[in-house]
């Protein structure tokens, strides 16, 4: 054995795990199926001279200690947190901007509803308090529930103390809110449709549920972990595209001594007597190793790379029951000029997420279509123009726009054939053109990335970039499946470190770091 | 000076009567005040048309706690529960799905639709049985306040922790999934037959403003599995004489223990002195004094109407104001000249002595929900139909029948409000939809009573017509029902207690709230 450990998959979590383990002195080999590592942290040429993020167009949240521990800034990572978090044009020609600064945002909201403006600071403060508690939850390895013992019990008690630290009233609120629907929660606070739509969109991110489905309040909370207090729906943007995050992680991992092999798709994790023996590549090559960490999603790992005969049927059943249901597509547009929106955009507002979500009902109706297996006729869109941040992504004077479209469900009643994809691109262009009339005429190139594409190109089960929906039954001690939330698997020597494990997707590297910590701890035993 | 009671119970619904009976049994001088001419609240039988008796609102029973039946000796007071054994779901293709009282017969029937599901059903039933057992102690406990550091609460939390630990990981995780998942997703893990999943999901959406694909509905599924008749889980029953007979039996038991029950006695407000409840004032101006006042009304009625926000802490009032009702169901009661003839199962048969469920597919239920989300009643609603006169012939004149149709969704906040025209249109939609499955129905109708959530509110007083005194959603259960820190039947007003379905565990003709409230009052030495 030439390596102590093999990491399958060179995406963000895989690279973070590899970097931490290499830093701890282990000889690590990363096997990446594609010709470039980075996974979804990928910026590629979509048309001559236009470079564009493939799926996610922000880093979600990169924990500050990961960036520091791995020295990512030194490897060229430049994160930007725009002042504007959301810019939401309205059908009536007005627009709503959410700023990182709650006072500035309240002023803006006042144009829609003075009462909502008054409630805004308290709402953002509550969200920030809850997010801080969640941050503590996300940093731990999930304890065994309900039979926590020893250190596990201490972890639970520690979190309990953290929760109590909120004070009696806020503690109850923290327990009450996550199972609610984001619509109910926002209805408790606000009246203006524009505001509830713009904020509520954060409750349905990458989930096949509508804002009136219970548990979507949790999704909104999840996407505020680590964010600066007061900023709603803030996201780290990566200068030059998210691909630079992938490249910085590659450089960091290599810098610590990890070896990365690309174009090395794994066929099978070889197991004997319940123990890992090694990894077999598609080429037929066999790599002997006693520890394997897979950053592929749990179903792909446990039902694709491991032979089912090594697993308890109940475990396999649980893994098969994980809900993925990719719901989001990306449409990339190469533009010959900036879109000119009818609604006035304050200076810098377009650096936020350009959000088409004028009301909760609009979002709910978008979900209705998806519920019956169709693309939303009036979709929720979240667009970004990365060339505003880094003009070098397009030829001079030209621009890139990436648009996340929801709902574009993986499970379509029809199929994701060429005409369906074209219709999706048309729909997105037409929807945006309603708000920016010049847009349609200035589209030079466009490209569609559906959940099916994500599955076939990146191996993501059902095209779900978070490796499984973030619903209350699929988080914390239930992620990826009940009883196996501690990055271990029933196969000795096989671990998981992807977004399919606690704390899930949208948090760059959080799962990978937790998994690495568990592995290091275990090796010391 | 008027006579002083130990306890005055506001509202003579089943929970109020149960609290009264338990308190009287313990030797307290108890007075029950009921606004209407009869006791029962939403559990009443009324002769709406000459010769035709209806369980006007609530129409089946399964959740009534067996210990209450025992403690109050209800059979001696006339309670007789007749089994409602089958559920038949007509399908859109003319076929049907039936679940019979006989498990073997059911298995054969399910096998016809899917051999895999027939097999899964055995294991599913076993799991649900375990889950119901796991939940029973929780239903029977006064919810501890997780934010409190008092020894009693800490002990309660410890007991709860021990209970969960005792379940072991497998059962605990299964219970956790049941609490957090949607009924459609939950059933997808077990079954493949759509109509079977739909019929089971239907019980998960009853009384909620959620569709079967929304998380949180799987739990309500369990709520309807917790029924226990003669010790056997899951069976539904029909009270001889209609649901009102249950209330009558409890009232009779309460009287037997010495409780006094006054009807036509609407309470205007709770009488307060130095921040304590000292009695009530009736709408006719009479003042009645008591050492303890107990309200069985829903939280909004109790606190915002009978007490008044000005008497209460602001945080508490906020919590009560945002407690969600959102009534979503209606009822259509029909007097029939003849039995309905279902196309999928023609003629008179045992299926007419059970429930007929109009829930042909998950998509059907979701579409019914979609209408309601945007402020309309479902054009093609979910319906749970029973024909009480087939079980108890005294409900209708000889040869004639009564039909009880539970309908969802009928949103309380329907666009334009519930006008008379809207009510009739709703009734028409119900009859039209049902006639698609039983073509002779429309012409067999002699009388039709249509009840909207707005009618439920007007007649029974239930806020927004919510049949459970507040939605059974995860964020409104256990220590959060009806408000944090006040889930133990006590209220911020000293000597004022609550005992309705708006308290833990709430919902259905279960009576657990009424019983636990009585226990708490007695434990407090009141």
Summarize the SSE layout with pairings.
The complex is a heterodimer of chains A (525) and B (526).
Chain A: E1 5-8, H1 12-23, E2 28-31, E3 43-47, E4 50-53, E5 61-62, H2 64-69, E6 79-80, E7 84-89, E8 95-99, H3 102-109, H4 114-138, H5 150-164, H6 168-176, H7 182-189, H8 193-200, H9 216-222, E9 237-238, H10 243-255, E10 259-261, E11 266-272, E12 275-281, E13 286-288, E14 292-294, H11 298-305, H12 313-320, E15 328-335, E16 353-356, H13 360-371, E17 380-384, E18 399-406, H14 418-435, E19 443-449, H15 451-458, E20 494-496, E21 507-508, H16 510-524
Helix pairs in contact in A: 1-10, 1-16, 3-4, 7-9, 8-13
Chain B: E1 4-10, H1 14-25, E2 30-33, E3 45-49, E4 52-55, H2 66-71, E5 81-84, E6 87-90, E7 96-99, H3 103-113, H4 115-139, H5 151-180, H6 183-188, H7 194-205, H8 217-223, E8 228-229, E9 232-233, E10 236-239, H9 244-256, E11 260-262, E12 267-273, E13 276-282, E14 287-295, H10 299-307, H11 314-322, E15 329-336, E16 355-358, H12 362-373, E17 382-386, H13 388-391, E18 401-408, H14 420-435, H15 441-444, E19 445-451, H16 453-460, E20 496-498, H17 512-523
Parallel strand pairs in B: 1-2, 1-14, 2-11, 6-16, 14-20
Antiparallel strand pairs in B: 3-4, 5-10, 6-7, 8-9, 12-13, 13-14, 15-18, 15-19, 16-17, 17-18
Helix pairs in contact in B: 1-9, 1-17, 3-4, 4-5, 5-8, 7-8, 7-12
Give a brief rundown of this model.
The complex is a heterodimer of chains A (525) and B (526). With 525 residues, chain A is of the alpha/beta class.
Describe this structure as you would to a colleague.
The complex is a heterodimer of chains A (525) and B (526). Chain A has helices at residues 12-23, 64-69, 102-109, 114-138, 150-164, 168-176, 182-189, 193-200, 216-222, 243-255, 298-305, 313-320, 360-371, 418-435, 451-458, 510-524, and strands at 5-8, 28-31, 43-47, 50-53, 61-62, 79-80, 84-89, 95-99, 237-238, 259-261, 266-272, 275-281, 286-288, 292-294, 328-335, 353-356, 380-384, 399-406, 443-449, 494-496, 507-508. With 525 residues, chain A is of the alpha/beta class. The radius of gyration of chain A is 22 Å and the shape is globular. With 526 residues, chain B is of the alpha/beta class. Chain B contains 17 helices and 20 strands. Chain B has helices at 14-25, 66-71, 103-113, 115-139, 151-180, 183-188, 194-205, 217-223, 244-256, 299-307, 314-322, 362-373, 388-391, 420-435, 441-444, 453-460, 512-523, and strands at 4-10, 30-33, 45-49, 52-55, 81-84, 87-90, 96-99, 228-229, 232-233, 236-239, 260-262, 267-273, 276-282, 287-295, 329-336, 355-358, 382-386, 401-408, 445-451, 496-498. In chain B, strands 1, 2, 11, 12, 13, 14 and 20 form a 7-stranded mixed sheet that branches. The chains are: A alpha/beta (525), B alpha/beta (526). At the A-B interface, helix 6 and helix 13 of A face helix 5 and helix 12 of B.
């Amino acid at each position: 054995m030439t390596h102590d450990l093999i990491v399958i998959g060179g995406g963000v979590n895989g690279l973070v795990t590899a970097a931490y383990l290499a830093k701890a002195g282990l000889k690590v080999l990363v096997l990446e199926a594609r010709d470039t590592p980075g996974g979804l942290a990928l910026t590629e040429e979509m048309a001559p001279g236009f470079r564009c993020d493939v799926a996610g167009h922000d880093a979600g949240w990169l924990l500050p200690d990961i960036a520091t521990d791995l020295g990512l800034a030194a490897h060229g990572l430049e994160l930007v947190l725009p002042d504007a978090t959301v810019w939401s044009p309205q059908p009536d020609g007005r627009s709503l901007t959410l700023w990182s600064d709650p006072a500035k945002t309240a002023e803006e909201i006042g144009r829609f509803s003075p009462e909502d403006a008054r409630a805004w600071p308290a709402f953002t403060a509550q969200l920030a308090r809850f997010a801080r508690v969640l941050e503590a939850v996300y940093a731990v390895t999930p304890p065994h529930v309900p039979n926590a013992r020893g250190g596990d019990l201490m972890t639970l008690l520690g979190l309990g103390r953290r929760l109590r630290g909120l004070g009696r009233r806020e503690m109850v609120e923290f327990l009450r809110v996550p199972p609610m629907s984001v619509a109910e929660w926002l209805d408790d606070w606000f009246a203006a449709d524009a505001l509830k739509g713009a904020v509520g969109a954060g409750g349905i991110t990458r989930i096949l549920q509508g804002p009136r489905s219970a548990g979507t309040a949790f999704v909104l909370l999840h996407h505020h972990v680590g964010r600066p207090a007061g900023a709603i729906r803030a996201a780290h943007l990566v200068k030059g595209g998210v691909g630079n995050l992938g490249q910085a992680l590659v450089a960091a991992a290599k810098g610590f001594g990890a070896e990365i092999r690309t174009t090395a798709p794994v066929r099978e994790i070889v197991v004997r007597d319940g123990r890992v023996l090694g990894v077999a590549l598609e080429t037929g090559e066999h790599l002997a190793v006693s520890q394997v960490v897979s950053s592929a999603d749990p179903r792909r790992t446990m039902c694709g790379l491991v032979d089912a005969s090594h697993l308890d049927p109940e475990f396999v059943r649980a893994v098969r029951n994980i809900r993925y249901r990719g719901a989001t597509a990306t449409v990339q547009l190469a533009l010959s000029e900036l879109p000119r929106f009818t609604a006035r955009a304050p200076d810098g507002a377009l650096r936020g997420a350009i959000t088409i979500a004028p009301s909760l009902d609009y979002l709910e109706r978008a979900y209705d279509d998806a519920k019956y297996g169709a693309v939303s006729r009036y979709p929720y869109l979240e667009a970004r123009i990365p060339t505003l941040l880094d003009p070098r992504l397009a030829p001079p004077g030209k621009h890139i726009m990436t648009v996340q479209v929801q709902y574009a469900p993986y499970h379509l009643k029809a199929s994701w054939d060429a005409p369906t994809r074209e219709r999706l691109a048309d729909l997105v262009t037409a929807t945006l053109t309603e708000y920016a009339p010049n847009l349609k005429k200035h589209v030079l190139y466009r490209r569609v990335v559906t959940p099916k594409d994500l599955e076939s190109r990146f191996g993501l089960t059902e095209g779900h970039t978070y490796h499984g929906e973030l619903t209350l039954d699929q988080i914390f001690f239930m992620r990826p499946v009940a009883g196996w939330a501690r990055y271990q698997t029933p196969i000795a020597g096989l671990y998981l470190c992807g977004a399919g494990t606690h704390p899930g997707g949208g948090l760059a590297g959080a799962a990978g770091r937790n998994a690495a910590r568990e592995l290091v701890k275990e090796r010391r035993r | 000076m008027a006579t002083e009671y130990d306890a005055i119970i506001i509202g003579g619904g089943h929970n109020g009567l149960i609290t009264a009976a338990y308190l009287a049994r313990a030797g307290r001088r108890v007075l029950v005040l009921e606004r209407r001419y009869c006791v029962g609240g939403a559990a009443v039988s009324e002769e709406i048309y000459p010769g035709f008796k209806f369980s006007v609102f609530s129409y089946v029973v399964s959740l009534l706690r067996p210990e209450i039946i025992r403690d109050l000796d209800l059979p001696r007071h006339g309670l007789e529960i007749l089994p409602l054994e089958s559920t038949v779901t007509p399908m859109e293709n003319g076929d049907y799905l039936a679940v019979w009282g006989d498990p073997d017969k059911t298995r054969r029937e399910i096998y016809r639709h899917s051999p895999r599901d027939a097999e899964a059903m055995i294991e599913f039933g076993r799991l649900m049985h375990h889950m119901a057992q796991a939940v029973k102690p929780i239903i029977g406990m006064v919810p501890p306040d997780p934010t409190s550091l008092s020894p009693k609460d800490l002990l309660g939390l410890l007991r709860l922790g021990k209970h969960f630990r005792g379940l072991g990981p497998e059962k605990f995780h299964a219970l956790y999934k049941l609490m957090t998942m949607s009924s459609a997703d939950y059933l997808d893990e077990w079954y493949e037959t759509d109509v079977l999943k739909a019929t089971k999901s239907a019980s998960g959406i009853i009384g909620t403003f959620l569709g079967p694909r929304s998380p949180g509905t799987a739990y309500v599924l369990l709520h309807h599995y917790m029924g226990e008749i003669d010790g056997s889980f899951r069976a539904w029953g029909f009270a001889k004489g209609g649901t009102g007979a249950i209330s009558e039996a409890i009232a009779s038991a309460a009287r037997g223990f010495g409780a006094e029950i006054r009807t036509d006695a609407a309470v205007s407000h709770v009488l307060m002195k130095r921040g304590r409840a000292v009695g009530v004032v009736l709408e006719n101006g009479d003042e009645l004094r008591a050492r303890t006042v107990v309200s069985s009304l829903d939280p909004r009625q109790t606190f915002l109407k009978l007490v008044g926000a000005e008497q209460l802490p602001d945080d508490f009032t906020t919590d009560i104001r945002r407690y969600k009702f959102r009534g979503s169901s209606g009822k259509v009661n029909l007097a029939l000249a003849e039995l309905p003839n279902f196309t999928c199962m023609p003629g008179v048969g045992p299926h007419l002595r059970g429930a007929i469920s109009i829930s042909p597919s998950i998509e059907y239920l979701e579409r019914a929900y979609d209408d309601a989300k945007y402020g309309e009643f479902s054009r093609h609603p979910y319906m749970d139909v029973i024909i009480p006169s087939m079980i108890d012939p005294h409900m209708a004149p000889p040869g004639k029948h009564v039909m009880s149709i539970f309908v969802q969704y009928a949103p309380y906040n329907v666009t334009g409000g519930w006008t008379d025209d809207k009510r009739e249109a709703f009734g028409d939609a119900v009859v039209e939809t049902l006639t698609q499955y039983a073509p002779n129905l429309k012409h067999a109708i002699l009388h039709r009573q249509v009840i909207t959530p707005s009618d439920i509110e007007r007649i029974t007083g239930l806020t927004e017509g919510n049949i459970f005194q507040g939605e059974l959603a995860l964020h409104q259960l256990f220590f959060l029902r009806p408000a944090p820190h006040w889930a133990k039947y006590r209220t911020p007003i000293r000597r004022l207690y609550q005992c309705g379905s708006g308290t833990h565990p709430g919902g259905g003709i279960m009576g657990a709230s009424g019983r636990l409230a009585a226990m708490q009052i007695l434990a407090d030495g009141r």
